[in-house]
């Protein structure tokens, strides 16, 4: 049982996202190995999974779904904001108009995101809070406007060839990483002994 005694708590296991998922979906349908199980409060071997410390809080053993109901709603909002960025290309023909319609909302979202974070609604990726959504969408809008200016306005396409390739193969890259195919593939190349690989070299 998860014991939560602080109103507005956004900590692991004691937040609105977890509560709604437990009430609607049921605790047996939630992800049983949440990321906070590797925290210092929940694992002696932190940052790896390990035995519970003697004074571990009750929520350490509580399941939590990072793709829960509320989190999914905010992820959909992020997609809709991205769709709006795309609509600007369709409805505005001049470079200046497009860039301004990207920059103004993006700056507005960033200001609002940091204001919300300052007043208590913190940026939190596992919970996909409103402030996190606004921050990521605003940052993406600024980057998109910058790359558009660099490539379409000034014609500097060569520096963005790698990003263009990644954008064209985004789903494939996601599958390779999410299914651990790419890490396994990288681990397979080593010199001398298995520990001498690209992953250990980059650490």
From TrEMBL:
Keywords: Membrane, Transmembrane, Transmembrane helix
Transmembrane regions: 69-90, 102-121, 127-151, 171-191
Keyword Transmembrane on entry: yes
Superkingdom classification of source: Eukaryota
PANTHER family found in the cross-reference section: LD22376P (PTHR31061)
Record protein name field: Heparan-alpha-glucosaminide N-acetyltransferase catalytic domain-containing protein
Organism: Aegilops tauschii subsp. strangulata
């Amino acid at each position: 049982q998860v014991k939560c005694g602080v109103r507005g708590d956004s900590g692991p296991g004691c937040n609105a996202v977890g509560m709604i998922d437990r009430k609607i979906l049921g605790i047996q349908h939630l992800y049983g190995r949440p990321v906070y199980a590797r925290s210092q409060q929940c694992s002696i071997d932190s940052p790896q999974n390990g035995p519970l410390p003697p004074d571990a809080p009750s929520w350490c053993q509580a399941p939590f779904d990072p793709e829960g109901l509320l989190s999914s709603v905010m992820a959909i909002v992020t997609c809709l904001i991205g769709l709006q960025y795309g609509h600007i290309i369709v409805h505005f023909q001049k470079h200046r108009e497009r860039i301004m319609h990207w920059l103004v909302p993006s700056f507005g979202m960033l200001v609002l995101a940091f204001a919300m974070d300052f007043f208590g609604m913190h940026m939190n990726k596992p919970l996909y809070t409103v402030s996190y959504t606004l921050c990521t969408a605003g940052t993406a809008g600024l980057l998109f406007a910058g790359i558009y200016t660099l490539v379409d306005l000034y014609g500097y396409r060569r520096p963005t060839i790698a990003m263009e390739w990644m954008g064209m193969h985004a789903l494939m890259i996601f599958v390779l990483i999410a299914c651990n195919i790419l890490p396994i593939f990288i681990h397979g190349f080593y010199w001398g002994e298995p520990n001498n690989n690209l992953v250990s070299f980059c650490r």
